[in-house]
Amino acid sequence: MAININTTVTTDEGFEVSNIFAYLNIYILSPESNWVNVSYFKSQEDWTNGKQPLNASELPNQVQTELTSEEFWGDGLATLIHNKCKSKIEEVTGDDTTTIVQ
Fold first, then answer.
1. Distance of CA 62 to CAs 4, 15, 45, 70, 84, Å?
2. For residues 67 and 35, what is the distance between their CA atoms, to the nearest angstrom?
3. Please, which of 3, 18, 80, 97 could form a disulfide with 22 given CB 3.0 to 4.6 Å?
4. Model confidence pLDDT, tens digit, residues 29-88
5. Buried b (16+ CB within 10 A) or exposed e, 24-51
6. SS3 of 17, please?
7. Burial (CB count within 10 angstroms: exposed 0-12, middle 13-18, buried 19+), residue 17
8. Is 21 in contact with 38 (CB distance < 8 Å)?
């Protein structure tokens, strides 16, 4: 899964990029120790081909997921984590600017 950001983002170099994708590296050790590193790419193809992520420091590059024990042991963990990251991204990009893609 990935998160599509359906708005224009300005990179650190000053370029405007629309409809970028966020990919998550999820680190879950226990309910008290979990976070996500987020990388942004111009396209799904760029991520698949191992290209460098965009430099977009205005967007969150790490999200503390703050999982409860129930969430940690639940069956919807991947979707829950993506939704938590969507919320953090939308704090910058605005409401309803992201969607989870398969």
1. 17, 22, 22, 22, 11
2. 9
3. 3
4. 887 888 999 999 999 999 999 999 999 999 999 999 988 888 888 889 999 999 999 999
5. bebeeeeeeebbbebbbbbeeebbeeee
6. strand
7. middle
8. no
